[in-house]
Design goal:
Elements (H helix, E strand, L loop, with lengths): L2 H54 L5 E8 L10 H13 L3 E10 L4 H17 L4 E11 L1 H6 L4 E4 L4 E3 L11 H7 L23 H26 L16 E3 H7 L4 E2 L2 H9 L4 E3 L6 H20 L9
Parallel strand pairs: 1-2, 1-8, 2-3, 3-4, 3-5, 4-7
Antiparallel strand pairs: 5-6
Helix pairs in contact: 1-9, 2-3
Length: about 325
């Protein structure tokens, strides 16, 4: 056999081995993806059962706990939808004897905060036998305090940070930088003030006054809600700075009537509500959602590899 034929035969054997390895790898990826898909479906079916078992376990009287943690904004953990869903579930449970909102938040959207505030007051009116207690841990500021003020009572630690009853809106102005760079801003609008918040054009006095009016209106709504929620407990007389946006320690907040007493979720459940058993009603990502996020990209990548869509590689 000539050397050329020998090399051709060797090349065929090597190529056949490589192809067999590729087939084996693709089938391996396929079965792994199939296993992950099976686990994915099984978890999706099991999650409702877990929720059902959790509901079935609530056979005793208890204190309902709802966490308000982080930024209050749409699509965040502390969104109005999540908090309101948690509140409704807690109030609808016949074994709930009181609700604790455990708050650790710098605030956020006034719209989201107002939505939660109004829902707390509505639920309190519908279920007068169930009291709501806000418990501020590290921080209950701005929109978070807006929500807390709807509760029957507010508790905090001496060192908690409470208040910040104010409204802010900020941005940047790049007009001077553009002038130095020799860049012209070209913007076309239908409406005299359509682009009044554009950071690339100079501020106009009438628009600044208008925007300040919007902030002042929102601030007034905030103050009115806090006054309505806290009533005569607020020490407004002699403290004009109460609604200035300043933030206070828990000790100062108690003296100003921003909170009612010192306490934490456990002490309120045990000593105020009288039910030390705490059931968490906080809406969180389900195990199914977390699982989906973790494996979704991996499954897609493995399926793509199995189907032959491979990116560049060193060979």
């Amino acid at each position: 056999m000539s050397d050329e034929k020998s090399w051709q035969l060797l090349e065929k054997v090597v190529l056949a081995g490589v192809q067999e390895q590729r087939r084996a790898r693709r089938w391996g990826i396929f079965f792994k993806a199939l296993t992950l898909l099976y686990l994915f479906v099984a978890l999706a079916m099991f999650s409702p059962l877990m929720d059902f078992e959790k509901q079935a376990a609530r056979t005793e009287n208890h204190t309902a706990l709802i966490e308000v943690r982080g930024m209050i904004a749409d699509k965040e953990e502390a969104s109005a939808d999540n908090i309101v869903t948690s509140l409704r579930a807690a109030f609808e449970d016949s074994k709930t004897r009181g609700v604790v909102l455990r708050i650790n938040s710098p605030g956020g959207s006034p719209v989201q905060s107002s939505y939660v505030y109004n829902e707390i007051r509505r639920l309190r009116a519908e279920h007068p036998q169930i009291k709501v207690y806000a418990v501020i841990t590290d921080l209950g500021a701005s929109g978070a305090y807006y929500i807390a003020s709807a509760a029957d009572q507010i508790y905090a630690d001496k060192s908690s940070l409470v208040g910040s009853i104010g409204v802010t809106a900020s941005g940047f102005g790049f007009v001077g930088v553009m002038e130095k760079l020799g860049v012209d801003r070209r913007i076309y609008t239908s409406g005299e003030h359509k682009a009044f918040l554009d950071p690339f054009q100079p501020q106009k006095e009438d628009e600044t006054i208008f925007w300040q009016g919007v902030l002042d209106t929102t601030h007034r709504q905030f103050i009115d809600s806090v006054r309505q929620g806290r009533g005569e407990r607020l020490k407004v007389e002699g403290h004009p700075e109460l609604f200035s946006g300043l933030i206070w320690s828990g000790e100062q907040a108690l003296a100003l009537g921003l909170i009612d007493a010192y306490g934490n979720a456990s002490s309120v459940a045990r000593e105020v509500i009288g039910e030390k058993e705490i059931v968490d009603y906080t809406v969180r990502e389900s195990p199914f959602d977390r699982f989906a996020k973790r494996i979704g990209a991996s499954v897609a990548q493995n399926l793509a590899l199995w189907m032959g869509f491979q990116g560049p590689a060193l060979r």
